[in-house]
Design goal:
Number of strands of chain A: 5
CATH class of chain B: Alpha Beta
Strand content of chain A: 25-35%
Helix content of chain B: 40-55%
Strand order of the largest sheet of chain B: 1-5-4-3-2
Number of strands of chain B: 5
Largest sheet of chain A: 5 strands, antiparallel
Radius of gyration of chain A: 14 Å
Shape of chain B: globular
Number of helices of chain B: 5
Number of domains of chain A: 1
Oligomer: heterodimer
Largest interface: A-B, 24 and 19 residues
CATH architecture of chain A: 2-Layer Sandwich
Number of helices of chain A: 5
CATH superfamily of chain B: HprK N-terminal domain-like
Radius of gyration of chain B: 12 Å
Structural class of chain A: alpha+beta
Structural class of chain B: alpha/beta
Strand order of the largest sheet of chain A: 1-2-3-5-4
C-alpha cells in the first residue's frame, strides 16, 4: 500500500497534518501500537524539518507486510554537513522557529532513535531526501 | 485519575477540548521544546508548557496525551483552542508557574 502527501514549506499551521493522516492509516491497518508510536515520532520530526527548512516537499509512505518505508523529499536549501546536522543540539532554525519551541537540534536524533534504517541524501541548493525504514 | 478530577483538584480553567475531560491521566511531562515532548512524552501524560500555538495540539494528538496545561495565566491562540476541540484533547490553564503546577500534579499522581 502506497500513499503520498504534500508538505508546504513555512506553513506551520499545517505541520503534523500528513503525520496524523499516516497514523490513522497505520491504526486502521492494525499495525502494532509500539511500532506506530515510533514511526509517528520520526515522521513528525521529518515533516517539521520540511516545513521549517524547505520550500515544499512530499511525504511518501509505503506499507508492506514486514516493513514501513517512509520518504520525505523536499526542494530546499539542502544540508551542507549531514554529520553536523545529526549532532544533538545543532540546528540552523531561525529565531522565529526556535521561539515556537522547535529548532532545538533534536529532530534528526529523534528520527534516528525511532527508525531501523535512516538514509539522508542532500544537494545544497536543491533539496534533501530523508528515507526511513521501520521493520514491523 | 481523570482530567476532570485534575481540573477540580488544581482549580484549572478549561479553554478547549471539553470532549476529552474523561481521559485517564498516567503521568506528566514538563517541557517547552516540542521535539523533547515528541521524543520523550508518552501516551496519557499531561503536558505542562508555556507554548500557546497550534503545533502543541499536533504533538498532543500524535502522542495521545491526556491534556495540556498552560501556565502563568497564558491563553491558547485561537487556532490552538480550535484544534483542541477538534481533537477532543483538553487545553487547560493555571495562573501558577510551571514549578507549582508540576509539583501539585506530581503529588496527585504519585500518591
Amino acid at each position: 500500500m502506497q500513499f503520498e502527501y504534500s508538505i508546504e514549506g513555512g506553513n506551520f499551521s499545517r505541520a503534523g497534518y500528513a503525520s496524523s493522516e499516516v497514523k490513522k492509516k497505520l491504526k486502521q491497518l492494525n499495525v502494532d501500537l509500539q511500532v506506530i508510536k515510533r514511526v509517528v515520532v520520526a515522521l513528525y520530526e521529518a515533516e517539521v524539518n520540511v516545513v521549517a527548512h524547505a520550500y515544499n516537499g512530499r511525504m511518501e509512505v509505503e506499507i508492506d507486510k514486514d516493513k514501513i518505508k517512509l520518504a520525505l523529499v523536499d526542494s530546499g536549501p539542502g544540508i551542507p554537513d549531514i554529520d553536523k546536522a545529526m549532532e544533538e543540539g545543532y540546528s540552523t532554525a531561525t529565531p522565529e522557529v526556535r521561539e515556537m519551541g522547535f529548532g532545538a537540534g533534536m529532530g534528526l536524533p529523534n528520527i534516528k532513535k525511532n527508525v531501523d534504517v535512516l538514509t539522508i541524501n542532500s544537494v545544497v541548493g536543491k533539496g534533501t531526501t530523508v528515507q526511513m525504514i521501520t521493520y514491523i | 485519575m481523570k482530567v476532570s478530577d485534575l481540573i477540580k483538584e488544581l482549580g484549572l480553567k478549561v479553554f478547549a477540548g471539553a470532549g476529552g475531560l474523561d481521559r485517564d491521566i498516567d503521568g506528566g511531562y514538563v517541557s517547552d521544546l516540542l521535539s523533547d515532548v515528541m521524543g520523550n512524552a508518552d501516551t496519557g501524560m499531561v503536558w505542562i508548557t508555556l507554548q500557546t500555538h497550534k503545533n502543541v495540539m499536533a504533538i498532543a494528538s500524535l502522542k495521545d496525551l491526556a491534556a495540556v496545561i498552560l501556565v502563568k495565566g497564558l491563553r491558547p491562540d485561537a487556532d490552538m483552542a480550535a484544534q483542541g476541540d477538534i481533537e477532543g484533547i483538553p487545553v487547560l490553564g493555571s495562573d501558577d508557574q510551571t514549578f507549582d503546577v508540576a509539583g501539585r500534579l506530581y503529588g496527585l499522581i504519585k500518591k
